[in-house]
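Re-run with default settings, no changes from the original entry. Doing this only to confirm the output is reproducible before filing.
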Amino acid sequence: MTLEFEKLIGKVDEMARIAADRKREQDQTADELRATLDKYAEEWEAIKAALALADEKADKKIYRSARPLTDNTALNAAIPAPAPPARATIIATDGSQIMPDRHAAHLYYLINIGGVIYHHGSGNAPDSFSIPELHYPENAKAMATFLSSSGEVSVERDLREIGTLAEKAWDHRHGQRPLLTILDQRLLYWPIGGDDDKSSTEVRKWMSAMTKIHDSGGLLAGYIDRPMTTAVITLLKTLQGAETADSFDWKSLGKRSLTGGISDGALFSRLLKPGERSAIFTHISPRNTEFAEFDAGNQVCFFFLNPGMDGRSIARIDLPLWVAEDEDAVTAVHGLIYDQCQIIGDYPYVIARADEMAVVGRQDNQELNFMIDIKMQDYGIDISTTAKLGSKSLARGGRTRHGGI
């Protein structure tokens, strides 16, 4: 053991004291925001006026707010979980990867997509699958750019996740309905750190997969565990700002510094009991406008759900407009996802099972490298790693991080 813990006791104590002070401040802010939520729960004209004022005065580069999808459900609604449909087909996919490593003996990356098809109400065991894909430079020119960005591998994995989900939905389009497809991430997708032209191309592929699921007659949901977004809080701040009008700092609206460290999830944890969901909102953002322009049904909406039996966690459920505007579809999504969360507690079983099928563990990585080594030797290629990688393995005595997995 090399970490001298006794030298950290003072800082750990200070860290805990500051966290306690911050929590008291956040609790006060959350109380104020909850009061605003209740005050404007059904003040639809005031909400429209405040959002119009923000559209005029806020900085569009940073302003990202929520807007209630309809005026049929109060902002502070807590809708109990309905009984799930008697029968349904639920499909979930997830992905994992081994990143390219220039210190390794051979240059490659691997993407593994795992998934499960759950036959709700049938009594039949779920069907699981995994689809591994090995990628490597096929010529000398490709060698020069192969390690350009590990982010590109992550984006490719994301696209394969939703692409596989769309393919499976299409394959089951004549099967048991409702057909619910689930991803373990947001639906309003945009690659982080990518250039706009390339990112737009990748996002169009994402949106095309969403449309394919729609064409299959399926429902689509993105499940986000413990979300940290602040779109609803920005809506509430907008309402507070409209009360003071010109004296409000509109140009800062949308900055995280104005939220007091409170997330939408923390706000709705004060409102929703186990099984309950919130009203449905949609995103006000240029990205969501792009989704709607590609396919009107792909506009991304969302609600918050308390999925747990203990009531401590909050999830955000993303929905495309074609699901969100269909009351029966929303009821089915709500009931099925909450039912899934009761199987293993607080989290959908199908997503957890898809993750198990997708994950590439350390032993998998080692066995793949061994397989590659053997084949390379068959063709007379020597095995070699860089000195850096070799020295790390020696110094750690075989104890290594799960790097690249």
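Residues 274 and 306 are 5 Å apart (CA to CA). Strands lie at 65-68, 88-98, 109-120, 127-135, 179-183, 219-225, 281-284, 300-305, 315-320.
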